[in-house]
Request: fold
Amino acid sequence: DGSGRADKREVFLLGQLRAAAVALNPGVPESAIDGALETLVARRPALAPVAANLEVYELIRDGVPVVYDDAQGRRQDGRVRVIDFAEPASPLNRFTAVSQLWIRGEEGFRRPDVLLYVNGLPLVFLELKNAKKELRLAYDDNLTKYRAEIPQLFLANALCVLSNAV
Reply:
């Protein structure tokens, strides 16, 4: 599907995420970056969905804590940044809109209408209904099912947009 995902259960675009993290964190060894990204994209099944989302939000906002040895062999505490918040229009931030991405859920495949990514992070979910359909259907028939079946989609989610163009 061109997303670069190794597993259809994945919702993060790991190639974009890793490329951004490497570019945004010069001097941090790639092994430390890889560990930070594993922490960031972990599923968090023991947490309530809101708590999991808050935890991931804080990691995105503040950076993922890492400990590594620098080039001189000294122990360093740092944070791996995944978005350049200081310069939102920076070429280090990659914005991607994906339409109809097939995601394997608990009971089969789901296909959100549009997902907006920043550096491989699915931050915005859009469900678009025909103008003749009640807007409530976007919530009842789509968003609630997606939250139950593909909860990993909402780990990094910052915004949900439901619309019927009316």
User: Anything to note?
Assistant: The helical segments are 14-24, 30-41, 49-62, 136-149. The first helix runs from residue 14 to 24.
